Amino acid sequence: RILGIIFDLDGVITDTAEFHYKAWQWLADREGLSFDRTVNEQLRGVSRRKSLEIILKGSNMEEERILRCMDDKNAYYQTLLEGISRQDILPGVEDLLKGIRRRGWKISLASASRNARFILEKLELISFFDGLSDGYSVVRPKPAPDVFIHAAGQLGLPVTQCIVVEDAEAGVKAALEGGMKTVGIGPENRVGAAHIRYDEPGLIALDDLQSLIPG
Ligand code: BG6
Ligand code: MG
């Protein structure tokens, strides 16, 4: 049976959290908003707009300024992304992708990011992917299951044949909601709801994935 392995990007394939942090910190300083690493942890897997709302902590901002802040943060983030390369692929991930292909399974991306394609190209991993769903593909962000369902559709596979790999609480929730088997990357208190959990993506064993979907 052909399985579809659907990967989140940030925190699973590469660790862009530090770049997001630097960009939000830059914006927060400019706007006179308080922000630190603890707040940044809450932004894992969260859409750009929702991230800004979390940083604003309920204080009001005009729609026009919200849009400008999102654009400016992204422009800053993109300058940081210019520097990424194959060296920023998390350990073991490329071998994992190769192993999945050798089994004849399919691979798709399901990321909240609108920079996902650019990042996969910079990492020189784009050719591994049969499908790519990103921040442009669906309206409702994670924890809604939409981006994962979109990704399964791109692979032409039913959700029951797909396995999601996620590092964010919102992402695990979304995958479970979509009826998919879920692999959590990170600590128990973050991704403990997943069917199986590893500390790092490089530790994922293909036989474990196979046994999540027997038959
Ligand atoms: C997710 C990140 O993958 O994408 C979030 O974990 C980020 O931190 C979100 O906010 C949206 O990304 P972007 O690149 O479109 O701002
Ligand atoms: Mg992530």
TrEMBL record:
Please tell me where substrate binds in this chain: 8-10, 24, 43-48, 51, 73, 111-115, 142
Q: What's its EC? A: 5.4.2.6
Cofactor(s) needed, names only, are: Mg(2+)
Extract the coiled-coil ranges from the record. none
- Where is Mg(2+) annotated to bind? D8, D10, E166, D167
The note describing how and how many cofactors are bound reads: Binds 2 magnesium ions per subunit.
> What are the site positions for Important for catalytic activity and assists the phosphoryl transfer reaction to Asp8 by balancing charge and orienting the reacting groups?
S111, K142
Q: Which SUPFAM superfamilies match?
A: HAD-like
- List, in alphabetical order, the Gene Ontology terms for molecular function in this entry: beta-phosphoglucomutase activity; magnesium ion binding
Catalytic residues as annotated in Swiss-Prot or TrEMBL = D8, D10
Task: Please give the Pfam families that the UniProt record associates with this protein.
Answer: Hydrolase
Xref: InterPro entries: B-phosphoglucomutase_hydrolase (IPR010976), Beta-PGM (IPR010972), Beta-PGM-like (IPR051600), HAD-like_sf (IPR036412), HAD-SF_hydro_IA (IPR006439), HAD_sf (IPR023214), PGP-like_dom2 (IPR023198)
List this protein's GO terms for biological process.
carbohydrate metabolic process
Q: Keywords on this record?
A: Carbohydrate metabolism, Isomerase, Magnesium, Metal-binding, Phosphoprotein
Q: Does the keyword Isomerase apply?
A: yes
Q: Know the name of this protein? A: Beta-phosphoglucomutase
UniProt source species = Spirochaeta isovalerica
